[in-house]
Amino acid sequence: MQTCSALEENEIHYQKILLRAFSMSSVDLSLQHAVHTLYEDHHSWLCGWLRKRLGCVDNAADLAQDTFLRVLTQRKAPQLREPRAYLSTVARSLMIDMFRRRALEQAYLETLALSPEPVEISPETRSLIIETLMEIDRLLDGLGGRTREIFLMAQLDGLSYVEIGRRLGVSVTTVKKHAVRALTHCLLLVED
Hints:
single chain; mainly alpha; Arc Repressor Mutant, subunit A; 2 domains; 0% strand; elongated
């Protein structure tokens, strides 16, 4: 359970978020009131819901705040019949993003650890690399499983089409077809 001081800290943090979100432009007071009411009525429930799934009070509190920030950025007052279902959907999406980011970061750090020479990378460069990996992950999200797998084997693992075909038990022509489909998909998304 949160202590009184922790609740006060959350309220102060929420007020700062509100001020930051609303300071950029004039915002409908009904949105401000709706989000404030939503926060007051459901924040502690959302923190508990997230804590059960994440197993960490701090991460749960961060994601709960991010959830309400996401609601604020929609710039329209939500008309909700089931506010908890809505909040859990937004929070679940943010949780998935967090897990993806962590998995990409972990894979990057493992790859970095395997490099023959020690590599010293600044926090800014590391952040840029992770953001780029997240963008690539979003680009590849629309690919089918086999196409994505072939693309990653060719681009990340550096395998030839022959090696990929041998590992997957498919012809080189099939591998090429999937590779072209993946590259075309990425190019079309980048051009948009």
